[in-house]
Amino acid sequence: MPLMKSWVESANAPNHPFPLNNLPYGVFSTEGTDPRPGVAIGDMILDMEAAEAEGVVTLSEYPLFDVPFWNEVMEEGPAVWAALRARLTSLLAEGSAERDRVEPLLVPMADADLHMPFAVSEYTDFYAGRHHATNVGTMFRGAENALPPNWLHIPIGYNGRASSVVVSGTDIRRPWGQLKSPDHDLPAFLPSRRFDIELEMGAIVGMHSDGPVTVQEADTMIFGYVLLNDWSARDIQAWEYQPLGPFQAKATATSISPWIVTKAALEPFRVNAPEREFELLDHLKDVGPMLYDIKLAVDMAPEGKAATTIARTNYAQLYYSAAQQLAHHSSSGCPMSVGDLLGSGTISGPTKPERGSLLELSWGGKEPLTLDTGEQRSFIEDGDTLTLKGFAEGDGYRIGFGDCTGTVLPALDDPYKR
Amino acid sequence: MPLMKSWVESANAPNHPFPLNNLPYGVFSTEGTDPRPGVAIGDMILDMEAAEAEGVVTLSEYPLFDVPFWNEVMEEGPAVWAALRARLTSLLAEGSAERDRVEPLLVPMADADLHMPFAVSEYTDFYAGRHHATNVGTMFRGAENALPPNWLHIPIGYNGRASSVVVSGTDIRRPWGQLKSPDHDLPAFLPSRRFDIELEMGAIVGMHSDGPVTVQEADTMIFGYVLLNDWSARDIQAWEYQPLGPFQAKATATSISPWIVTKAALEPFRVNAPEREFELLDHLKDVGPMLYDIKLAVDMAPEGKAATTIARTNYAQLYYSAAQQLAHHSSSGCPMSVGDLLGSGTISGPTKPERGSLLELSWGGKEPLTLDTGEQRSFIEDGDTLTLKGFAEGDGYRIGFGDCTGTVLPALDDPYKR
Predict the structure, then answer these.
(1) Phi-psi region for residue A329, left (φ > 0), alpha (ψ -120 to 50) or beta?
(2) pTM score, two decimals?
(3) pLDDT in tens, chain B (418 residues)
(4) A159 to B328: CB separation less than 8 angstroms, yes or no
(5) Inter-chain contact B329–A251, Cβ cutoff 8 Å?
């Protein structure tokens, strides 16, 4: 499919992240106005609350866009999702007869603040990148035992903390935590010294389920995708994670990009999962191409300095798709909810510059990175800005996600001082 | 404090779980009516929606009781919690001048269905019982390495799944899951064969926080307590839990008792935590007695048969209080929300009949229990009803929790058949 042209001229610019083919969903506000749903088109945002109020978009008998999140639209289900996309495409396409009605509803993106695009019901983080799991396992347990015995049979995951999910641009305060260094007998409560990123993508569940769902049903339930950075305190994690898994190490914040790129926009980019070393059990079997060819990168910028791209990889490097993760998640009968967020797990490729965390890039701190500006980094230092970027490349157009960025602030001197 | 007498005569009966000293909060409905908040007093429920509508209880300028959960009351904060308890005590006390206004607002508990008393924001399960952790650790790693090195320094916990929390009386469907038996090379997807209970108590967070809170602040934030059964599929858990902790093993269901017993009602029963083997770090230190003397028991009844009490223990057997768990939970800056539920972890005492799970009672299936009715049990069999019971014993009265019960239904023949 080639570039679909819009009468919003900026959307037709080469390599623009938000052409008519994309139409991602966010929540925005302008000075003095309340956050409301919007759709990105080129350098503009279509104000969906206004579009609904004006009768330009009507999806149901009751309003869906008078709230600062997309959950109400998700609740309507896939037929309405498709109807909305079709309507938006028609309204914004070159030659649209309704241009005059729509043009007054556009807001320049430069004037907008972006907010969380949806209300997160629950957040689950998976561990579905084979190269990442192998790298971390090698560091912790040696190359022979790198992958746990279950890894090639289950999309391993753990429940995270929905309350800690924030939108791109939110500053991240370096956490305190209980740490035990190898040269001390006892732990201490200190600021984390090994604060890290995890380059992930998040899948947003758009439908409820009450019992086990198949991989095909799970794919139908997914509303869209975002970039996701699961900030991780490696020193807190190392001390706390046995035997019940990561907890406070992952609870400070998880950042997501501000635009939900719909599953529909990503359809042309579906690719197959890698070859299976063991045949998957029936309820997890591939039922078609469910990964996507999405180019991903991580930029790191010391305070006041230019950014260096420290990693480039691809979403297709995952071993398990979001649909397989969701199928596994529901397999015990666990009810799934509209607004659940599934982190993919860190996405690393097979070579060193494709690694999606500083833990892997600096090999546990043993091989510090040198940035283009000359600084060395093993983990994040105060003032560093970390930015995830991603896009799918079509025939003369891109499906962009918008940056997922955050600046790390110094730990508080005393976190209990009010 | 002795028994406080009520004009609701049944509340004054010896050993009644709901005397005037208690006043626990639930959500109920009667035939043809919608669920609404209520307060248990003896064999009756005070209809709080009606009490507010009639002007008998007025806590704010806007209604708090026209919703089927207690979260709105929690949002008001501790001053309103105290005002509500004082008002209810005055209305229901023997000799109340307002008896005539209140009596028409009482509904017989026998006519009521009980529902979830609050909307669960997020659910966290801890592992704060030393005897339980020691028993499980001994089974899995041997007596020498029973307690992980962090255990005596951190209240170890993991995030659970809020969507799976159900009210007492909800049937529990035996889950399917990925299992690997020791005599097979590969896993299979099968119904769980080692389905278990965990005898716990749940603490309900009633206030928001955005950064680390002290143990004292955490205690203030707790609204009340319930009994909690964290149903656990041991065979799913054994295969999945490395390296990121329990996931689908704990996601089928967690049952809670239907009445929130307030922190205020439990005040007379505060007891100190056990002696500390290592001094706790400052941010986790005991700041007074924050456990409670609450007697707990587990009953098991095969289908159509009488129940056998299979365990008796006490909440005071925990090593870490809910306030310490909450302080730890917030220590990384993790935002905490009104309606968060914190499971205590399984509560076992030092001797065999005090063990709070079948895993411990049957020592991993090696020492099956014999019930009073003659049946043997290592884990739960289809049709078994498991019931947690609990009360604090005062001077001539009890603070009861109401049973936390559930019957295990057979696994579906094919969980994917619709």
Answers:
(1) alpha
(2) 0.98
(3) 899 999 999 999 999 999 999 999 999 999 999 999 999 999 999 999 999 999 999 999 999 999 999 999 999 999 999 999 999 999 999 999 999 999 999 999 999 999 999 999 999 999 999 999 999 999 988 999 899 999 999 999 999 999 999 999 999 999 999 999 989 999 999 999 999 999 999 999 999 999 999 999 999 999 999 999 999 999 999 999 999 999 999 999 999 999 999 999 999 999 999 999 999 999 999 999 999 999 999 999 999 999 999 999 999 999 999 999 999 999 999 999 999 999 999 999 999 999 999 999 999 999 999 999 999 999 999 999 999 999 999 999 999 999 999 999 999 999 998 7
(4) no
(5) yes
- The answer to whether residue B328 is catalytic is no
- For residues A392 and A400, give the distance between their C-alpha atoms in angstroms, rounded to a whole number: 7
Spatial CA neighbour of B70 closest among B338, B343, B342: B338
Please give the ipTM for the structure prediction.
Answer: 0.97
Interface test with A, best of B159, B242, B324 (most A CBs within 10 A): B159
Interface of B with A in 131-190 (CB under 8 A): 148-150, 153-154, 156-164, 173, 175-178, 180, 186-189
d(CA A171, CA A190): 20
Rounded-to-5 percentages of helix, strand, coil across chain A: 25, 30, 45
Contacts of B333 in chain A (CB under 8 A): 173, 175-176, 251-253, 415
Q: B366-370 contacts: CB < 8 A, separation 24 or more?
A: B369/B300, B369/B310
DSSP A196-231: E--EEEEEEE-S-BSS---HHHHHHHEEEEEEEEE-
Is the Cβ of B343 closer than 8 Å to some Cβ of chain A? no
Exposed / middle / buried, residue B172 (Cβ in 10 Å: 0-12, 13-18, 19+): buried
CA distance B401 to B398: 10
What is the C-alpha separation between B330 and A415, in angstroms, rounded? 11
Rounded Cα distance, B206 and B358, in Å: 32
Q: Which chain A residues contact residue B334 at CB under 8 A?
A: 161, 163-164, 248, 251-252
Q: Count the residues in chain B.
A: 418
Element (H, E) at A131: helix A130-141
Using a CB–CB cutoff of 8 Å, tell me whether B95 touches chain A.
Answer: no
Residues of A in contact with B176 (CB under 8 A): 212, 331-333
**B161: nearest CB among A122, A246, A247:** A122
Cα–Cα distance, A146 to B244 (Å, whole number): 14
- By CA distance, what is B153's nearest residue in A? A187
Tokens of residue A87, six digits = 């309507």
Strands A404-409 and A172-173: parallel
Determine whether the interchain pair A246/B249 forms a contact, defined as Cβ–Cβ distance below 8 Å. no
Identified catalytic residue from B131, B132, B328, B329: B132
DSSP H/E element including B201: strand B199-205
Check residue B352 and report its DSSP letter: G
Question: Strands B106-108 and A376-377, how do they pair?
Answer: unpaired
